[in-house]
Design brief:
The chain is built from eight helices and no strands. It is an all-alpha fold. It has a domain of 154 residues. The longest helix is centred in the middle third of the chain and has 33 residues. It is globular and about 60 Å long. It starts with 13 loop residues before the first helix and ends with a helix.
Length: 241
């Protein structure tokens, strides 16, 4: 569909977009779980698994992102599936498959969260009753938060700038600066210092933009029919008549 600002995408929204991408690649909490699941785990095998996973995810993200924006340009929504017309049977199947994927992914994330809580708050193995209670609290709190909005873009932006960016850029680089010997402005530490500054800049600006424009941040279509879908429906109806 044509739009006056079809390719005018370099604006302030690039800051929360960086947060969204950081959130998409944030998997630090699964590190120990994945490492212990590797048969005969070693640094070499760990490097192969992580590099292959990240590269594959990057290719898929670029494929969907570029193809999606090239198709819908300025009409692109935070959730790309919102851009497709509701009478598109193929995309309805895609929505169903995406929902199934989320349903199957959530237990894995819940498992990691529960393990972190149990290891952090309890020194000894918890009872079965406590185990179920923690699980219920995690699922219940996630459900209450999820029903507060039907706009996926808002959730991704908030998680991106407030959690993903610090975890992906700031904390790892700060850990390296602290553990690596040498002056903080040495040649070996300059890249890590630059990553810290980049992460802090994105996090601060992203949070600022979110809170300043919080009343207008909810820009998803919320299941409404997009204008070009209405035009197509009207055209098809006119042709049929």
């Amino acid at each position: 569909p044509s739009h006056d600002n079809a390719w005018k995408f370099a604006n302030s929204d690039i800051v929360p977009a960086i947060g969204i991408m950081a959130f998409a690649f944030m998997c630090h909490h699964n590190t120990f779980l994945i490492y212990t699941s590797i048969q005969d785990a070693s640094q070499k095998r760990w490097d192969i698994v992580t590099h292959a996973s990240i590269v594959t995810s990057l290719l898929v993200a670029c494929l969907f992102g570029i193809a999606g924006y090239a198709t819908f340009t300025a009409y692109s929504q935070g959730d790309l599936l919102e851009n497709y017309c509701w009478d598109d049977d193929l995309m309805n199947i895609s929505r169903l498959l995406f929902s199934i994927t989320i349903l199957l992914t959530y237990p894995i994330e819940c498992f990691v969260t529960r393990e972190v809580i149990q290891n952090s708050l309890f020194s000894a193995p918890v009872s079965e009753r406590t185990h179920y209670l923690i699980t219920l609290c995690i699922v219940g709190s996630a459900y209450l938060i999820s029903i507060s909005t039907d706009c996926l873009g808002v959730v991704l932006e908030l998680n991106g700038v407030l959690a993903a960016v610090p975890l992906a850029y700031v904390l790892p680089a700060l850990s390296y600066l602290q553990l690596e010997e040498g002056f903080i402005l040495s040649r070996r530490k300059i890249p890590a210092l630059a990553v810290v500054m980049f992460g802090l800049t994105v996090a601060i600006l992203g949070a600022l933009f979110l809170f300043v424009d919080f009343s207008e941040i909810d820009t998803c279509s919320h299941g409404k029919i997009m204008p070009y879908c209405l035009n197509a429906t009207f055209t098809n109806h006119s042709v049929a008549v």
